[in-house]
Amino acid sequence: MYTKGTVHYDPLPLPDRVRLSDDQALAAAQTFRADLARRHSVRDFAPDPVPQAVLTECIAAAGLAPSGANHQPWHFCLIGDPAMKARIRDAAEEEERSFYAGGAGDEWLAALEPIGTGVSKPHLTTAPWLIVIFAQRYGVTDDGTRYKNYYVPESVGIATGFLIAALHRAGLVCLTHTPNPMKFLNTLCGRPESEKPVMILPVGHPAPDATVPAVAKRKKPLDQILTAFP
């Protein structure tokens, strides 16, 4: 995190050292991949409650992500209040109406067709929790001094990946929801101008009749995403 004033490099012995055999490493990697293969983006949520402590632990895990200069340029708003979720849904659907009425363009809308999305966003009120992720474009100290954050999109993207993986490991499902534009979230969540909302994650348990788009299970084969130089 940012520290005002003069700072110095202070090396510590590696606190946690994990060394697996080659076989153990391969088995661990395969187990993790198989676990992530069971993760799905879900739009149909059960209204069943989820303890806040579970979400708090997942967000704490996200906060362990690496970041540019260790500034940790992110903020997470955890929302369970039904009235606040309803306001977010109303504002998001207003933006979506403009998006689907032509703001997106024909190519974008055609790309979304197999996903089955539309203006109505019931997941924003049905899911027991919403996590709104903000990227801190710059920081401000207690005395109002402004400082620069580094590699903000990359850092927030890594932290979001940590969060999604943590939610999955906790037996929950989520949806990466990005209404466009999202400036309304600053006002609704009381976040400063220095922060940019980048995503809403509805979180909870899947509804008994939950479905996923068939196209979502079509992943690129390894030879299309990997180039190795052994």
From TrEMBL:
Protein's UniProt name: Nitroreductase
UniProt-listed Gene3D superfamilies: NADH Oxidase
Presence of keyword Oxidoreductase: yes
GO MF annotations in UniProt: oxidoreductase activity
InterPro entries: Nitroreductase, Nitroreductase-like, Nitroreductase/BluB
Domain Nitroreductase: 37-205
Highest taxon of source: Bacteria
